Protein backbone atom coordinates (compact mmCIF):
# COMPACT_ATOMS: atom_id res chain seq x y z
CA UNK A 1 0.00 0.00 0.00
CA UNK A 2 1.40 3.41 -0.98
CA UNK A 3 1.55 6.21 1.62
CA UNK A 4 -1.31 8.49 0.40
CA UNK A 5 -4.76 7.56 1.72
CA UNK A 6 -8.13 9.14 1.00
CA UNK A 7 -10.45 10.89 3.46
CA UNK A 8 -12.91 8.01 3.00
CA UNK A 9 -10.21 5.49 3.96
CA UNK A 10 -9.38 7.44 7.12
CA UNK A 11 -13.03 8.08 8.04
CA UNK A 12 -13.65 4.33 8.06
CA UNK A 13 -10.84 3.90 10.61
CA UNK A 14 -11.48 6.99 12.73
CA UNK A 15 -12.83 5.05 15.71
CA UNK A 16 -10.17 2.35 15.62
CA UNK A 17 -8.02 2.72 18.77
CA UNK A 18 -4.89 1.76 16.79
CA UNK A 19 -5.35 4.73 14.42
CA UNK A 20 -3.31 7.81 15.31
CA UNK A 21 -3.85 11.06 13.38
CA UNK A 22 -1.21 13.79 13.36
CA UNK A 23 -1.43 17.39 12.17
CA UNK A 24 2.16 18.12 11.09
CA UNK A 25 1.75 21.63 9.69
CA UNK A 26 4.79 23.91 9.77
CA UNK A 27 4.40 27.64 9.08
CA UNK A 28 5.20 28.44 5.43
CA UNK A 29 8.63 29.97 4.90
CA UNK A 30 8.89 33.66 4.12
CA UNK A 31 5.38 34.61 5.23
CA UNK A 32 5.19 37.62 7.57
CA UNK A 33 3.78 37.65 10.16
CA UNK A 34 4.43 33.98 10.88
CA UNK A 35 1.32 31.84 10.66
CA UNK A 36 0.46 30.17 13.96
CA UNK A 37 -0.28 26.67 12.72
CA UNK A 38 -0.80 25.36 16.26
CA UNK A 39 -3.53 27.93 16.83
CA UNK A 40 -5.12 26.84 13.57
CA UNK A 41 -4.94 23.23 14.74
CA UNK A 42 -6.70 24.18 17.98
CA UNK A 43 -9.41 25.93 16.00
CA UNK A 44 -10.07 23.08 13.56
CA UNK A 45 -8.70 19.57 13.32
CA UNK A 46 -9.75 16.06 12.37
CA UNK A 47 -11.35 14.32 15.36
CA UNK A 48 -8.71 12.76 17.58
CA UNK A 49 -5.80 14.42 15.82
CA UNK A 50 -2.66 15.35 17.79
CA UNK A 51 -0.41 18.24 16.83
CA UNK A 52 2.99 16.92 15.64
CA UNK A 53 5.30 19.90 16.13
CA UNK A 54 8.23 19.23 13.79
CA UNK A 55 10.22 22.14 15.18
CA UNK A 56 9.76 21.11 18.82
CA UNK A 57 10.56 17.48 17.97
CA UNK A 58 13.83 18.36 16.20
CA UNK A 59 17.35 18.35 17.64
CA UNK A 60 17.99 21.64 19.47
CA UNK A 61 21.59 20.77 20.31
CA UNK A 62 22.56 22.01 16.85
CA UNK A 63 22.15 25.39 15.18
CA UNK A 64 20.95 23.66 12.00
CA UNK A 65 17.17 23.74 11.49
CA UNK A 66 14.87 20.73 11.78
CA UNK A 67 17.59 18.12 12.34
CA UNK A 68 16.56 14.66 13.49
CA UNK A 69 16.71 14.13 17.26
CA UNK A 70 18.31 11.07 18.80
CA UNK A 71 16.29 7.84 18.68
CA UNK A 72 15.97 8.00 22.48
CA UNK A 73 14.59 11.55 22.44
CA UNK A 74 12.16 10.73 19.63
CA UNK A 75 10.95 7.60 21.43
CA UNK A 76 10.27 9.60 24.57
CA UNK A 77 8.44 12.34 22.68
CA UNK A 78 6.26 9.94 20.71
CA UNK A 79 5.47 7.84 23.77
CA UNK A 80 4.39 10.99 25.63
CA UNK A 81 2.15 12.02 22.72
CA UNK A 82 0.47 8.62 22.76
CA UNK A 83 2.01 7.39 19.50
CA UNK A 84 3.18 3.79 19.29
CA UNK A 85 5.57 2.50 16.64
CA UNK A 86 2.95 -0.17 15.86
CA UNK A 87 0.08 2.28 15.41
CA UNK A 88 -1.55 3.05 12.08
CA UNK A 89 -0.38 6.65 11.76
CA UNK A 90 -2.04 9.09 9.35
CA UNK A 91 -0.40 12.50 8.87
CA UNK A 92 -1.96 15.56 7.34
CA UNK A 93 -1.34 19.27 7.01
CA UNK A 94 -3.75 22.13 6.99
CA UNK A 95 -3.07 23.31 3.47
CA UNK A 96 -0.96 22.22 0.51
CA UNK A 97 1.97 19.78 0.45
CA UNK A 98 4.92 21.06 2.44
CA UNK A 99 5.68 19.61 5.88
CA UNK A 100 3.59 16.45 6.36
CA UNK A 101 6.09 14.40 4.31
CA UNK A 102 8.82 15.44 6.77
CA UNK A 103 6.81 13.95 9.64
CA UNK A 104 6.21 10.81 7.53
CA UNK A 105 9.94 10.52 6.90
CA UNK A 106 10.85 11.08 10.57
CA UNK A 107 8.48 8.38 11.76
CA UNK A 108 9.57 5.94 9.07
CA UNK A 109 13.25 6.62 9.78
CA UNK A 110 12.67 5.75 13.43
CA UNK A 111 10.97 2.47 12.63
CA UNK A 112 7.23 3.10 12.45
CA UNK A 113 5.93 0.83 9.68
CA UNK A 114 2.32 1.88 9.11
CA UNK A 115 2.66 5.57 8.27
CA UNK A 116 0.39 7.27 5.76
CA UNK A 117 -0.33 10.73 4.37
CA UNK A 118 -3.88 12.04 4.05
CA UNK A 119 -4.17 12.95 0.37
CA UNK A 120 -5.27 16.56 0.12
CA UNK A 121 -4.92 17.16 3.85
CA UNK A 122 -7.45 18.95 6.01
CA UNK A 123 -8.96 20.74 3.03
CA UNK A 124 -9.85 17.47 1.32
CA UNK A 125 -11.31 16.20 4.60
CA UNK A 126 -13.58 19.22 5.06
CA UNK A 127 -14.53 19.27 1.37
CA UNK A 128 -15.76 15.69 1.84
CA UNK A 129 -18.10 17.05 4.56
CA UNK A 130 -16.41 14.97 7.22
CA UNK A 131 -16.46 16.10 10.87
CA UNK A 132 -13.91 18.30 12.60
CA UNK A 133 -13.40 19.36 16.20
CA UNK A 134 -11.56 22.07 18.10
CA UNK A 135 -9.56 22.51 21.28
CA UNK A 136 -6.56 20.71 22.80
CA UNK A 137 -6.35 16.93 22.81
CA UNK A 138 -4.23 14.53 24.83
CA UNK A 139 -3.80 10.79 24.37
CA UNK A 140 -2.73 8.33 27.03
CA UNK A 141 1.01 7.59 26.89
CA UNK A 142 2.06 4.79 24.57
CA UNK A 143 5.20 2.81 23.86
CA UNK A 144 7.31 3.97 20.93
CA UNK A 145 10.50 1.95 20.50
CA UNK A 146 12.63 3.63 17.85
CA UNK A 147 14.57 1.46 15.41
CA UNK A 148 16.82 3.92 13.64
CA UNK A 149 17.30 3.32 9.90
CA UNK A 150 20.74 4.80 9.27
CA UNK A 151 20.40 4.22 5.54
CA UNK A 152 17.57 6.76 5.35
CA UNK A 153 19.79 9.69 6.27
CA UNK A 154 23.03 11.16 4.94
CA UNK A 155 25.48 13.48 6.70
CA UNK A 156 27.77 16.03 5.04
CA UNK A 157 30.66 13.59 4.58
CA UNK A 158 28.41 11.03 2.93
CA UNK A 159 26.84 13.73 0.78
CA UNK A 160 30.26 14.83 -0.48
CA UNK A 161 31.19 11.22 -1.26
CA UNK A 162 28.03 10.89 -3.33
CA UNK A 163 28.77 14.11 -5.16
CA UNK A 164 32.27 12.81 -5.95
CA UNK A 165 30.74 9.57 -7.25
CA UNK A 166 28.27 11.55 -9.40
CA UNK A 167 25.30 9.94 -7.72
CA UNK A 168 21.84 11.44 -8.15
CA UNK A 169 21.24 14.43 -5.87
CA UNK A 170 17.76 15.97 -6.11
CA UNK A 171 17.25 19.49 -4.70
CA UNK A 172 13.72 20.59 -3.75
CA UNK A 173 14.39 24.35 -3.60
CA UNK A 174 12.87 26.77 -6.09
CA UNK A 175 14.62 27.22 -9.45
CA UNK A 176 15.80 30.80 -8.68
CA UNK A 177 17.45 29.71 -5.43
CA UNK A 178 18.93 26.63 -7.10
CA UNK A 179 20.24 28.73 -10.00
CA UNK A 180 21.67 31.38 -7.69
CA UNK A 181 19.49 34.18 -9.07
CA UNK A 182 17.42 34.61 -5.88
CA UNK A 183 18.65 34.88 -2.28
CA UNK A 184 18.35 32.21 0.37
CA UNK A 185 15.87 32.93 3.19
CA UNK A 186 18.60 32.30 5.77
CA UNK A 187 20.98 35.25 6.16
CA UNK A 188 24.60 34.71 5.21
CA UNK A 189 24.01 31.74 2.90
CA UNK A 190 24.81 31.95 -0.77
CA UNK A 191 22.22 30.58 -3.16
CA UNK A 192 23.21 28.20 -5.93
CA UNK A 193 23.54 24.42 -6.00
CA UNK A 194 25.81 21.44 -5.46
CA UNK A 195 27.82 20.26 -8.50
CA UNK A 196 25.77 17.77 -10.50
CA UNK A 197 22.55 18.24 -8.51
CA UNK A 198 19.19 18.18 -10.28
CA UNK A 199 16.54 20.74 -9.42
CA UNK A 200 13.19 19.18 -8.47
CA UNK A 201 11.13 22.09 -7.04
CA UNK A 202 8.82 20.42 -4.53
CA UNK A 203 5.89 22.50 -5.74
CA UNK A 204 6.06 20.66 -9.08
CA UNK A 205 5.30 17.34 -7.38
CA UNK A 206 1.80 18.39 -6.32
CA UNK A 207 -1.33 19.77 -7.93
CA UNK A 208 -4.12 21.59 -6.08
CA UNK A 209 -2.93 20.38 -2.69
CA UNK A 210 -2.52 16.74 -3.73
CA UNK A 211 0.64 14.85 -4.60
CA UNK A 212 0.63 13.73 -8.22
CA UNK A 213 -0.28 10.14 -9.05
CA UNK A 214 2.39 7.46 -9.28
CA UNK A 215 2.21 7.46 -13.08
CA UNK A 216 2.46 11.26 -13.28
CA UNK A 217 5.37 11.27 -10.83
CA UNK A 218 7.21 8.65 -12.88
CA UNK A 219 6.65 10.75 -16.00
CA UNK A 220 7.88 13.87 -14.21
CA UNK A 221 11.04 12.21 -12.89
CA UNK A 222 11.71 10.83 -16.38
CA UNK A 223 11.67 14.38 -17.79
CA UNK A 224 14.38 15.21 -15.24
CA UNK A 225 16.42 12.14 -16.25
CA UNK A 226 16.07 10.62 -12.78
CA UNK A 227 16.80 6.88 -12.72
CA UNK A 228 14.46 5.40 -10.13
CA UNK A 229 16.52 2.19 -10.07
CA UNK A 230 19.71 3.91 -8.89
CA UNK A 231 20.54 5.47 -5.47
CA UNK A 232 19.03 8.91 -4.93
CA UNK A 233 19.77 11.50 -2.24
CA UNK A 234 17.28 14.31 -1.64
CA UNK A 235 18.08 17.75 -0.26
CA UNK A 236 16.49 21.19 0.11
CA UNK A 237 16.98 24.27 2.28
CA UNK A 238 16.53 22.72 5.73
CA UNK A 239 15.53 19.08 5.26
CA UNK A 240 11.76 19.61 5.16
CA UNK A 241 10.81 19.69 1.49
CA UNK A 242 13.53 17.14 0.69
CA UNK A 243 11.02 14.75 2.26
CA UNK A 244 8.41 15.77 -0.34
CA UNK A 245 10.80 14.42 -2.98
CA UNK A 246 11.53 11.32 -0.88
CA UNK A 247 7.82 10.57 -0.52
CA UNK A 248 7.19 11.21 -4.21
CA UNK A 249 10.07 8.90 -5.14
CA UNK A 250 8.65 6.12 -2.98
CA UNK A 251 5.24 6.55 -4.59
CA UNK A 252 6.92 6.41 -8.01
CA UNK A 253 8.63 3.13 -7.11
CA UNK A 254 12.18 4.12 -6.16
CA UNK A 255 13.79 1.91 -3.50
CA UNK A 256 17.19 3.43 -2.61
CA UNK A 257 16.30 6.87 -1.19
CA UNK A 258 18.35 8.87 1.30
CA UNK A 259 17.68 12.33 2.71
CA UNK A 260 20.57 14.72 3.42
CA UNK A 261 19.33 16.12 6.71
CA UNK A 262 21.66 19.14 6.95
CA UNK A 263 20.66 20.20 3.43
CA UNK A 264 21.64 23.61 2.05
CA UNK A 265 21.64 25.21 5.52
CA UNK A 266 24.66 23.04 6.36
CA UNK A 267 26.33 22.61 2.98
CA UNK A 268 26.40 26.30 2.00
CA UNK A 269 27.86 27.53 5.29
CA UNK A 270 31.11 25.59 4.79
CA UNK A 271 33.73 27.70 2.96
CA UNK A 272 35.13 24.62 1.21
CA UNK A 273 31.78 23.62 -0.28
CA UNK A 274 31.61 24.03 -4.05
CA UNK A 275 28.61 26.15 -5.04
CA UNK A 276 27.59 26.44 -8.66
CA UNK A 277 25.32 29.08 -10.15
CA UNK A 278 23.50 29.17 -13.45
CA UNK A 279 24.20 32.35 -15.37
Give a nutshell description of this structure:
The protein has helices spanning 7-11, 37-43, 71-81, 100-109, 121-127, 156-164, 175-179, 214-223, 242-252, 263-267, and strands spanning 4-5, 19-23, 50-51, 88-92, 115-118, 153-154, 168-171, 198-199, 206-207, 210-211, 232-235, 257-260.
Descriptive account of the structure:
This protein has about 280 residues and is an alpha/beta fold. The protein has 10 helices and 12 strands. It has helices at about 5-10, 35-45, 70-80, 100-110, 120-125, 155-165, 175-180, 215-225, 240-250, 265, and strands at about 5, 20-25, 50, 90, 115-120, 155, 170, 200, 205, 210, 230-235, 255-260. It has a 5-stranded parallel beta sheet with strand order 1-5-4-2-3. Helix 4 packs across helix 9 and helix 8 (about 215-225) crosses helix 9. The radius of gyration is 18 Å and the shape is globular. It starts with a strand and ends in a 12-residue tail after the last helix.
Amino acid sequence: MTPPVTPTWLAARLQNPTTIILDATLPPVGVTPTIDTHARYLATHIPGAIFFDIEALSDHATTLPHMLPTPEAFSQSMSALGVSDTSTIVIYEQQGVFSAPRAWWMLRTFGAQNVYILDGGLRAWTEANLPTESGPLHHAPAGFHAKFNRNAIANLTQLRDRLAQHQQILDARSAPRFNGTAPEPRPGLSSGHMPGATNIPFTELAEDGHLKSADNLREYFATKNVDLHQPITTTCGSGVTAAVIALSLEIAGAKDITLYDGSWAEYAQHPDSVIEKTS
